[in-house]
Amino acid sequence: MAEDRLPDEFTLIRRYFAPLATHPGAAALGDDVALIAPAPGLVHVLKTDTIVEGVHYFADDPAALVARKLLRVNLSDLAAKGARPVGYLLAASFAREMRESWLAEFARGLAEDQRTYGISLLGGDTTATPGPTTLTVTAIGEADAARVPRRSAAKPGHDIYVSGTLGDAALGLRVIKGELRGLSNEDADFLAGRYRLPEPRVALGQALIGIAVSAIDVSDGLVADLGHISEESRVRAEVQRDALPLSRAARAALATDPGLWPDIVAAGDDYEILFTAPSAAAEGIAGITRIGRIVAGQGVAILDPAGKPVEVKTAGYRHF
Ligand code: ADP
Ligand code: MG
């Protein structure tokens, strides 16, 4: 690629995107639209996310990783709703300086995760922009509408659970920025990996159908995301600080600097599933941490072992 400039729009679509359109309804991107139907009795579950170069990723980030993260943050929302992912649309506005080699790597990343999650590209749009590259994925899944766990469905008496471990991604970003020293290489790599490439809990989300009554994925941080459940359900969420699931690496980081504590509860990007379920459901829930309970009232409280609320500053990222 002597020049490494983008080919014209139609060549670009044929070369990089048509091979990703494996769903028969996408007609290999040979038509204006794609036609898809949910399985009988199910509805489509839709979510879109945009990333902007210089805001969500950097020009020198590996393109395949950018692609996979973009897909995965969308799939995480579907996972929290127990949906089976089907495919996605891609709206791409490429900066004038965009190189074909970057696009080729980007498409390779999409292909890799399409295989991982059994999904297909279904269509999209391609434009050039005088601004930074802007990429939007709209993910499409399917689910039984009556059993989708909503933010608004938490009830007093429910237990609160979260999958995996919390805070790793926020700590991983610090590792990448060089702000976190004194960790073993293994722990540092683990944390950085949790930031670089989230693992949406797609299979878990579907396994929780009929168990999780309300749910959300943790993208803004535990306190903020539990806050959304509390607000939409008009209930109070009480979390036991000492019950929060931490990775070995996060424990090691906290041991060297307890001031990192807000990263565990107030920073995002973990893409775990946070859900509530009636206590009768506890028997059917294994390998997921119960972190608290829903009571009457409002707001979110993190309680110390004495039952005293701990103050948490939630300075999450704000675009505006
Ligand atoms: P229009 O001129 O109506 O905008 P296009 O020529 O842009 O249509 O698109 C032709 C086909 O290519 C359509 O099926 C569209 O969904 C698909 N397509 C265009 N851009 C992308 C993209 N970035 N990713 C996936 N499919 C795309
Ligand atoms: Mg177009």
Please describe the topology of this protein:
Elements: H1 9-17, E1 43-52, H2 63-80, E2 84-95, H3 100-117, E3 120-129, E4 134-143, E5 159-162, H4 168-177, H5 185-196, H6 202-207, E6 214-217, H7 222-233, E7 236-240, H8 248-256, H9 261-266, E8 273-277, E9 289-295, E10 299-303, E11 309-310
Parallel strand pairs: 2-3, 7-10
Antiparallel strand pairs: 1-4, 2-4, 5-8, 5-9, 6-8, 7-9, 10-11
Residues 13, 17, 29, 31-32, 90, 92, 121, 123-126 line the site of adenosine-5'-diphosphate.
How would you describe this protein?
31% of the residues lie in helices and 23% in strands. The chain has helices at 9-17, 63-80, 100-117, 168-177, 185-196, 202-207, 222-233, 248-256, 261-266, and strands at residues 43-52, 84-95, 120-129, 134-143, 159-162, 214-217, 236-240, 273-277, 289-295, 299-303, 309-310. The strands form two sheets. It has a seven-stranded mixed β-sheet with strand order 6-8-5-9-7-10-11. Strands 1-4-2-3 form a four-stranded mixed β-sheet. The chain has two domains: 9-29 and 39-144, 60s Ribosomal Protein L30, Chain: A (2-Layer Sandwich), CATH 3.30.1330.10; 151-303, Alpha-Beta Complex (Phosphoribosyl-aminoimidazole Synthetase, Chain A, domain 2), CATH 3.90.650.10. The protein starts with 8 loop residues before the first helix and ends in a 10-residue tail after the last strand. With 320 residues, it is an alpha+beta fold. The chain is built from nine helices and eleven strands. The structure holds adenosine-5'-diphosphate (ADP) and magnesium ion. The site of adenosine-5'-diphosphate has 12 residues, from helix 1, strand 2 and strand 3.
